[in-house]
Amino acid sequence: MQPIDGPFAWRGSDLAERKDWIVELTAAQVEELRSVGERFVEDDPDLRTVTATDYPLPHCADAVAAFGDALDRGRGFVLVRGLPTETYDDALAGAIFYVMGLHLGVPMRQNELGDLLDHVIATSDKTLAEADALPSRVRDRLDFHSDSSDVVALMCLRAAKAGGASSLVSGATLVNEMLARRPDLAALLLEPWYFDWRKQDPDAPADYYTSPIVSWTGGVFSMYAGTSMIRSAQRHEGVPALSPEQNEALDLLDAITHEPGIALDMDFRPGDVQWLLNYAALHSRTSFVDHPEPGRRRHLLRLWLQRDVGRPLVPGFGKHVVAGREEARTEDDSRGHFHIADAVVPRQDWGQ
C-alpha cells in the first residue's frame, strides 16, 4: 500500500480555515424543498417504494448533483445549510430530508425492524460503559467510526444545550500517517477484522461480522473502521483474540484521530444536513448536555444510502450484511415505520 493522494486526503486544520465545504441553500431552493416536502407529507407514500422521480427537484438539481460530486470525487462530505426547520414540524423536515436522500441514493434498512429513517437521540441516561447501550442513544463522546452504508446523512432537528459537535477525519490521512510511522501496522488494515454487530443493533441476527478496515483495489482507497466495535466484538464466542500487533494498530489509529489538526469539528445548527461518503472519512461526536425538556433534546435524523457509482471494493468490505430497502420482508410490515409521520418519531424503547 502506497501513500494516498487526492482531495479526500485532507486535514481538519486546513479545512477549518475555509468554508467551501458548507453550501448555503438559496431562497428558491428552500422554497422548492418546502413545497415538495409538503406534498410528500400530504401524499404519505410508503418509504420503501417511493422514488426520486415521484418528487422531482428541478431548482435543486444542479446543487444535488454537486453534493454527489463532492462525495464521489471531492473531499467525501458536504454540509448543507439554510433549511428553516424551526418553522417546520418534524414530519415536514423529515420529508424534505428523505426526498433529498432519494436524489442521492437508495435508502437502506438501518435495523432488523426495517426502518429506513433512524434517529440519533438520547432515549435514556445510559452510557457506553453499559454493555447494552447503543451509541446512537447516548450522550457520550463517540469514537471515530464508519456507518453501514455507502453514504450516511444526518439532519439536525434540534441541537444540544452544550457540546455535541460532529467530527470528521479523512481516512486517507489516517492511513498516510500510519504508513509514515508504522507501515507494518498499516498493512494489517487490509486484513479482515471482527466487528460487534449486536452493539449496533440489539435485534441483529448474529453477534458479529467481518470486514477489512481498508480496501485498496483498482487504485481506489476506501476505509471502514470502528475501533470500539472491533474491541467490543471480543466479548463474543467465536471471535479470535486480538494479537498484540492488532491491538497496537488500533491504538495507533485511535491516537492519530485525536492529534491536533487531524479532525474537523462542526457544530450542527437546526436544519443542517451533513452528507458523508463512509469510505472517505470516519465520523464521531463530542459528548453533549441535553436541555431538560424532552421536546428540546438533541435530535438528528439519519439516512443510510446505497450510492452505486461503480466504486471498486474488495470482497466482504464494510457491513456487507446490511440489506437494501428492496429486500423488505413480510414481517417488516407490522414492525417498521414506513410512513413519514411515524418515521420521524424515535423509538423510545431503543437504548433503554
Automatic annotation (TrEMBL):
Its cofactor is Fe(2+). One of its GO terms (molecular function) is dioxygenase activity. Residues 56-304 form the TauD/TfdA-like domain. GO terms for biological process: antibiotic biosynthetic process. Keywords: Antibiotic biosynthesis, Dioxygenase, Iron, Oxidoreductase. The keyword Lipid metabolism does not apply. This is Taurine catabolism dioxygenase TauD, TfdA family.
